[in-house]
Amino acid sequence: MKNKKVYIISHSHWDREWYLPYEQHHMRLIRLMDDLLEIFETNPNFNSFHLDGQTIILDDYLQVRPEKKEAVERAIKNGKLRIGPFYILQDDFLISSEANTRNTLIGLEESKKWGNPVMLGYFPDTFGNMGQTPQMMKEAGIKAAAFGRGVKPTGFNNAVINDEKYASQFSEMWWEGPDNTKIFGLLFANWYSNGNEIPTTKKEAIEFWEKKLADANQYASTDHLLMMNGVDHQPVQKDVTQAIALANELYPDIEFIHSNFDDYLAAVMSDLPDNLSTVTGELTSQETDGWYTLANTASARIYIKQKNTEVQRQLENITEPLATMAYDITKAYPHDELRYAWKTLMQNHPHDSICGCSVDEVHREMMARFDKALEVGKYLADEATLALTSNIDTSNLPKNSKPFVVFNTAGVEKNEVIETTIEWMRRPFSEGKPNELYDELKQIAETLNEFHVVDSDGTIIPSELVTVDVAFDYDLPTDRFRIPYMAIFVTIRLSLASFNEMSWQSFALVEGKSQTSDKTLFDKNTQTIENDYVKVAIQNNGLIDITNKETNITYPSGLIFENVGDVGNEYIFKQPENDIPLYAHDFPTTINVITDTPLVCEVLIEQQMMIPLSAEDLLQEEMKAVIEMRDRKAQRSKDLGTFTLKTTLRVEKNNRQIKCHTEFDNQMRDHRLRVLFPTGLTTETHVAESIFEVVERPNTVQNKHWENPTNPQHQHSFVALRDETHGMTISNYGLNEYEILTNNTIAVTLLRAVGELGDWGYFPTPEAQCLGKQSVDFAIEVTTENTLFDSYKRAQSFQIPTTVKQTTHHTGVLASNYQFLSIDGKQFALTALKRQEFGEDIITRGFNLSNQTSSTLNLEINEYIPFEANMIEELKENTSVSTTIEPAKIQTLRWKKK
Question: What residue stretches are annotated with the Glycoside hydrolase family 38 central domain (predicted)?
Fold first, then answer.
């Protein structure tokens, strides 16, 4: 009887783009697929090929070989080509919760069009694994996940390091999420290339198998051993069946088979021992030496992350909610257009793409894809707002006014000051020469200096006139030719107070004096900005002291800009040995008030740092020699240049957040810029927004093996430190890396400029130095025990602008002011309001912001009834909706019209 069974799975881990531009990898993919289809027809012993868990490969292949569609379909139907369950292999930490969801939803849907997907959560090379994976996979009907990172150490060129720093004694384990959902976890303990290029000659085969079998046996919990026959962009091994036949001859007591994940998982999961370890939550290599967590990809090419945030917010939080609201009017939902936008966006979400760790050509192409998806989202949002505003009743607004509607498509109430531009008067080109029309309107505009805003009840709303200007614009009617014109545009500042989530309100711009208080927010004697919630004292060196007026607790000397050298790469930050940080407040600083009104105060802090121009020349030689970053000796150059930081502090009348916008023209190389906020808090843990989770992490590394002097972490919209009574929440826009320093200071990375890709060779990436003008946005909120969860939701809302649409006076079937979705749940964060994929039911999704306590929750949509659904929008067996949401629960509801 044979003792062991070796399952050999042929595959190729297909990074769609990485150290070569996309089309270079694309052409190699065509060759791979051609070879596979030939083997399927000519070698009956070739069991199957695992297509890397991503269906986009099929799209990419058939784009060039459309005539091969039937052959591909036949191969999938016959089980030769194993596909799914995802659309792409994403970096799960750097894309949004919804993007992770849509990747699975679209991947499963497209897989099922071809055949049966492989129901395995496939994360072979993801740079760490999100803690909610078990719940998300189970919600999609997937009971197992395979991954290469996060538990066992890996090193340079993905070399597997065999030591005791290993959370599981086996390559098989249970993986439990924060909500206690548990699935089977499979670690590629010897990487996903442990069975690559199997020899077909006796001597080489014996040497190969002696080592490979020993390595696999070291971690296997059963007699079922897995050998992955492939690696990155690996051509198919055409003689693998001959190699397997030879192995069976050489080892008669072991059965070697060419197999697939379906068969392997069925075998191994039916034979698991009782002593498997359970790993919990995030798998981020925190039990290793810390050098290859790859978390610093969160700060590589920050411009990529900022653009990704913009597009995700457009699709998830603006376009989909507006199109959902408009559906009852239009009876149409842009399913196909949104699918196109989502697929275009997700082409930027593979781990070597969104992580910013590819060659420059890759990231140039990514920016074009971002723009394509963004413009689709904007177009669809504009169509939806036009449909809505055309049917919103504005007849009760003053006749001599200009009506407009403001939409809050965030999942939380807004209290903020917005600026919007309203067309006051126009002259079409059909009425005269453009320059004459411009001059005519310019003269009229000079007489317009007083405006105010009223709501639908005629109440004057706090507002301020910003500018009156004349400019060119045009209309694009759907039923006739374009209409160019000149117009007077009035830009106003408007205070939104207690503006409900998922709602709209109608306003009108009226000529005449505004009624506002004379008291402004800035006190020039104390150099302090103050509203009802917070007081910000600006020191002469640019640091700020923040006082929470509800607790009278002051957080001194925040807004510290820190600059250090970086001799690492796109994957890993490495500060030069003995490098001394430079701080902006140690350099000349000027402070100027640029706006001071009853509604808003903006103060510009300008700091003139002198920093090294680059690393010294030795770094170039070390990169060319492929010297690992830990062994580099290069220092920062002695040549200095001016690095100017311009930070605008903004405090609004009714807003608890202190908003910051920092601009700089980066002409330096090989450095990192962070902003630091000392908290003075005594606490051992902090929280940050992750995927469907506010994850709690230790402030310091709890691992004796850790060697990296830094401990970078991922975040989405915020990171927060708090104790039992108070704390600080730092919001951001596309700044995905932070670190908690030893004195409980929050450090958010604003820029990391490096010159090479890194990993297994030398690939120069001059554009990763991020030269040129840059800007970043973040916000500070000091919290109490009662405002903690609200601060998290306000941080999410910080990334979601309101939508404003000008309209006309008319009657309509929709109310002037209306709340489409109401949310009564302090700990609930909404992530989606959309229509069911290719259906008309409404889908809402969100999660419990706490991993410890359940919370009351009530969602309401007028004339709709909710039913419990899973993340791929299928109704559950028990469709009743609870009035509480359990700890770390992801809730998807499917709403049907009454």
Answer: 297-370
pLDDT digits (tens, 9 = 90+) for 522-542: 999 999 999 999 999 999 999
Q: How does pLDDT run across 261-303, given as a tens digit for each residue?
A: 999 999 999 999 998 989 999 999 888 889 999 999 999 999 9
Percent of the chain with pLDDT over 90: 94
Outline where 191-234 has alpha helix (H): 202-219
pLDDT (tens digit per residue) in 353-397:
999 999 999 999 999 999 999 999 999 999 999 999 999 999 999
- Quote the CA–CA distance of 105 and 111 in Å, as a whole number: 10
Q: Judging by DSSP bridges, how do beta strands 534-538 and 713-714 pair with one another?
A: unpaired
Residue corresponding to tokens 């910003």: 466
What is the SS3 assignment for 109?
Answer: helix
Element (H, E) at 892: strand 890-897
What is the Cβ-side half-sphere exposure of residue 708, based on CA atoms within 13 angstroms?
27
The torsion defined by the Cα of 308, 738, 772 and 379, in degrees rounded to 10, comes to 20
Compute CA distances 148 → 8, 151, 219, 424, 524, whole Å: 17, 8, 14, 59, 57
pLDDT of residue 168: 67
Pairing of strands 693-698, 685-690: antiparallel
**SS3 readout for 604-669:** EEEEEEEEECCECCHHHHHHHCCCCHHHCCCCECCCEEEEEEEEEEEEECCCCCEEEEEEEEECCC
H-state helical runs in 65-201: 69-77, 97-114, 133-139
Task: Give CA separation, 678 vs 105, 558, 659, 732, 739, in Å.
Answer: 42, 6, 17, 17, 12
Lowest mean pLDDT among 274-278, 450-454, 499-503, 741-745: 274-278
Dist. CA 288–CA 707, nearest whole Å: 9
3-state DSSP helix/strand/coil % of the chain, to nearest 5: 25, 35, 40
Domains located in the chain, CATH noted: 4-273 (3.20.110.10), 290-390 (1.20.1270.50), 401-518 (2.60.40.2210), 526-799 (2.70.98.30), 820-897 (2.60.40.2220)
Distance from chain centroid for Cα 156:
26
Share of the chain above pLDDT 70, in %: 98
Question: Beta-carbon neighbour count of residue 706 at 10 Å?
Answer: 17
d(CA 597, CA 591): 17
Tell me the DSSP string of 538-570.
EPTTS-EEEEETTTTEEEEEE-EEEEEE--S-S
Q: Where are the alpha helices (DSSP H) in 698-847?
A: 788-797
Q: What is the pLDDT of residues 185-213, one digit of tens each?
A: 999 989 999 999 999 999 999 999 999 99
Report the C-alpha gap between 790 and 829 in whole angstroms.
10
pLDDT band at 597, cuts 50/70/90?
very high
User: Roughly how many angstroms between the first and final C-alpha of the chain, as a whole number?
Assistant: 64
3-state secondary structure 655-706: CCCEEEEEEEEECCCCEEEEEEEECCCCCCEEEEEECCEEEEEECCCCCCCC
What pLDDT does 157 receive?
Answer: 61
What three-state secondary structure class fits 324? helix
Cβ atoms of residues 565 and 670 within 8 Å: yes
- Average model confidence (pLDDT) across the chain: 96
Catalytic hit among 125, 328, 352, 670: 125
Q: Which residues are bridge partners to 475 per DSSP?
A: 483
Q: How far is CA 239 from CA 10, 199, 244, 855, in A?
A: 11, 9, 9, 58
Phi, psi of 710 (to 5 degrees): -115, 165
Distance in angstroms (rounded) separating the CA atoms of residues 758 and 573: 11
Maximum C-alpha span of the chain = 98
Active site residue 665: no
